[in-house]
Amino acid sequence: MNYRVYFSDSGTTTKAGFGKVAHLPCIFDSRPGYHRAASRYLIDRGLGVWNPKARGVAIETIAPSDQTILNYAHWLANFLEWANLRGIDLSTCTYAEHVQGRYQTEMVNGIWSRDAVGLKPSTINLRVQQACDFLTWMSDKGLRGPFHIATETVTVKSGSATSSVGHRPKEIEVRKGKVRQNKRRLRMPTDAQLDAWLSRVYAKAGDTKGLMCETILLTAMRREEVACWRVDTLPPEKKDWHINNPAAPLKQQQVRVSIKFGTKGSGYGYDHGDKIGPERSIWIPLELAERLDEYRRKHRNSALRKWVKSAPASEQRRRISETVHLFLDEHTGERITSKHLYQAWTSVELPFDGWSPHLGRDWWACSVLWRELKKHEHLLSLGVETATALLESTAMSVIRLQIQPQLGHAHDSTTMIYLQWVMDMVSVGLSVRYEAEHNNEFQIEINGETIADSKLQQRQP
């Protein structure tokens, strides 16, 4: 690929007076040389100066996250590469003939694909949308004539945890010609698969990265949020821990902590390389809190000593004071980044293709739904239709009051997949069953396999 995404040296860029954009990527073309228009576009997007909806109008906008901007850069570089090889003039190309008619079609047919295989609809739609946004930005900046995108009006249902009309339909404009994609259906590993995978992670990646992976499963934190966990995110003194119900059995107790480093959403600056995002409170199992505290008091110190001793004497004191992250590499003492965490997660045989940290968050959500549905197992004796309606209502309450706040989701659109998961379970082919022949035990099947309740009792949030 001739068009590539690069980052400048943040220190040099900041000293030159451009610290505001030091964290943003740029694009180099096939010469190679700095692609001025594409890089200007990424700056405008990264600073929230321009977006497809506001189009530069002076209204309050939220700047995309660093990862989102990086994705924009890679998608745009792909389009620029295609346009360059096909001899497409960006100042005159059109949506119907070039962007949808050729760029999108070539990706669908596998012509513009590394493996000569048609790309996923989601990948195609993201790339095409970025091309449209860039060409629209060029038009707004006077770098080309008007760029017209064919749109159509569709009706969607929106939801809100606080609105009494949460399912009121509303009309929105969408790009005409998008590649149709199937709705995502959750696939979860069985208990045996999950245990075996996690054991492999601990064995290959080590105890620290294994604990980080397990933290995702038990808290639904994003991998960036786990990597940004600070030494004092969990209060150092146990007397300062906020426990939800101290009188409950230990396995049911949870500790509330607040996180803001690496969280998704608006950015409020940086601290030790971490984006400061919107702060939210989450609950973590008391058992996990105890393990994190033990790691902090014992195992982390040996890793920190390795990191400090590897530096010159003049640098050692600074390393001690500047090492604020909880999770450190066992061998080098360096901070474990979200990239390292992802590599550990995927470095061993997976339960199935596509098992990722993001699905680990989904696993947590499904665990919560399972636990809450078990409290209402008596509904299954009321008949399928009645039980389905009541379980759906219960699931919606759980999603809005427990799952959304923990995941950090602002809208129902990103969590309705869990409601679909529930409905899939109670549909014909029944995944949710009332087992009279097994001591009236309430069981749930995922992918046709019943998952033992004992393991979820151990891991459930």
From TrEMBL:
Molecular function GO terms recorded: DNA binding
BP GO annotations: DNA integration; DNA recombination
Coiled-coil segments: none
Keywords carried by this UniProt record: DNA recombination, DNA-binding
Keyword hit for DNA-binding: yes
InterPro entries, alphabetized: DNA_brk_join_enz (IPR011010), Integrase-like_cat_sf (IPR013762), Integrase_recombinase_N (IPR010998)
Keyword Cell inner membrane listed: no
Superkingdom to which the source organism belongs: Bacteria
UniProt name for this protein: Tyr recombinase domain-containing protein
Organism, as annotated: Paraburkholderia phytofirmans OLGA172
Classification lineage: Bacteria, Pseudomonadati, Pseudomonadota, Betaproteobacteria, Burkholderiales
